Amino acid sequence: MGNRCAVIGVGQTKYRTKRADVSLAGMVREAALAALEDAGLTFADIDSVVVGKAPDMFEGVATPELYLADALGAVGKPMMRVHTAGSVGGSTTLVGASQVQAGLHERVLVVAFEKQSESNATWALSTHSPFSASLVVGAGGYFAPYIRAYIRRSGAPANIGMMVAVKDRINALRNPYAHLKIPNIDLAMVEESMMLWDPIRYLETCPSSDGAVAMVLASERAAEAAGAATGRPPAWVHGAAMRSEPMGMSGRDSVDPRAGRDCAADVYRQAGVTEPRRQFATAEVYVPFSWYEPMWLENLGFAEKGSGWKLTEAGATAFDGDIPWNPSGGVLSSNPIGASGMIRFAEAAQQVRGQAGEHQVAAAVDGSRLALGHAYGGGSQFFAMWAVGARKP
Amino acid sequence: MTTQASSSSQAAQTSASRASASQTSDERVVHVLEFPGGYTRSTGPVIGRFLTGLRSGRLFGVRMPDGRVLVPPTEYDPQTAAALGTADEDWVEVGPAGTVTTWTWVDDPRPDHPLDRPFAWALIRPDGADTALLHAVDSGSKAAMATGMRVHPTWRAERTGAVKDIACFAPGEGPAEVPALVPAPDGEAELEPVSMVTLPHRLEYRLRGGTVWNHFIDGMAVGQIRGTRCAKCGKVFVPPRGACPGDGVPATEWVDLPDTGVLTTFAVNNVPAAGAPEVPFISGYVLLDGADIAMLALVSDVPWQEVRIGMRVRGVWVPDAERTRSVKNLKWFAPTGEPDVPFEQFEEYV
Ligand SMILES: [Zn+2]
Prior knowledge:
The complex is a heterodimer of chains A (393) and B (350). Chain A has 393 residues and is α/β, with parallel strands linked by helices.
């Protein structure tokens, strides 16, 4: 895994439907400055900048990394952009981490963002080439058949998706950065919301958000110095991996993709995790449609195949359960697409740093258990994950 | 490309429908990407102030910590990343006249160029500024252009808070008259500072289908679904693939497939969209008999409540007389009425 790497600063904007008060650059900078402040640093301390966002069609800004160099203090430094669809926030983090693990840089600024209000993601995801008929409308239209197949395969009761939708929105009430705040949410409200792409209801989908997130990743030496200076402990990377697979491969399991299982296995091997449900204190997992919680519970080895829904049903993944999933409210509560993966990684780091505020999971702080950050993208093709902990690996 | 060519020549020898293969054309298909209404841009306070100035017929720059004046302004110092233009005293009115620092000549203006006659693109440094902005100079002739020449803006009356509020620059010191503002037809809030702009973009591509796609579409033109088989794993792909996604080797053998199969899973779509069928419509994955991958298709001729995983389906085609060289010849799949297929028999293809 190379040299030790740690998170020493995290910054997030408050996720909203529309940030009309700032430019795209201003919004991205807001997150970067917050991360630098958390780390007790300035742009001058940063050696390298890595940015990530979802497809350019979402905002119509081609090569935004060029335009953002001034705003991110990247002049005269290495700067690159990462692109792996919805998982890009996770893979951007890991590209930055690899620059530290390889010993290239002491402090790397990673930033991910999306300003969804500038366009319309459903439109951007539905611009099929003339060689294929337009049969799918947006991400919901694409993922709904796989959710239906999961329900058929596992025999899960129909209310599991609604339970996740309620749980994550209740969690969001404790997160000052979360976009959706629905204080009176309950199963009935979810059930009565419009069926958009059967079996996905409106309240079982993620919102469309503007926002950015940034982290400062540091070498062991830089992390110890920052921790001593700020009094805020680093989150140490115990395992990190990415995997991908082709979308149109015969025999590919689109419900329980092998790339996801392999990616988790690699992270767990590095981190010494053999029983994820016991060894993780919490997990921030990319769940853009409610049913992806039970699906990923199985894919990530927190439950046997076919029984992920039983953890959700038993309340194990709730904030007061034994393995809280998405205590921040998750993608279901805030979805600036390109940032959503990095928010998962950042929230996992904040949990083991003890910096998660009102949605702090108590068991994450003492260092005996780890936190998982997870992102996926494309047609469930790209996976990026990390395990972070309060103790050095 | 070599791979596809050899794939095609083998296909022509092995396919039953050799005649239609010979009709394969390589015409290109226009593909337009244009977000309806155009992308919006929140300008932020700095760019917004510059654009608001343009609307009132004035050019503003922003002073950097080292004293230089940037026009157009940027939000952040290109050297130090410091925020610029945060205080009123950092803003400097410049020009309106300026000096050409370099230029190039356009003999044949395009439709979206600012002028419909030959003109120069020039970098123009307004008086009082330390940087130059890009704009058109209407000099009448290339011979009238020179680096170092003096120019002044020609302001439009219909100003919206955009760089095109300056129609172009003209030779000489001016005067640069600013006609009274004629508000945009929809601009009732024109006196608010500019904070948002709309930027229409249109990308027009001309795409080639390629050898494999063309052979597939020639089959669709005569009501025949064609797939390709990987020589290594033996899997049959439909729509055809030029190479096996699992093995990475050319999938060279063509296979004619029936238009019957099983619906492996589906969505009931209630979200309307341009180009999609009327809601509710069913999109699903159909595993054709003899294929090793399910293909995305519409399902119809059945109430949506009665659609099931495992349902046997058959393709419904447009009448022969209406057929074109298009995937749309296959309208959708409809139930055959045969017994459902148990989930376990096709689960690995979901
Ligand atoms: Zn193969």
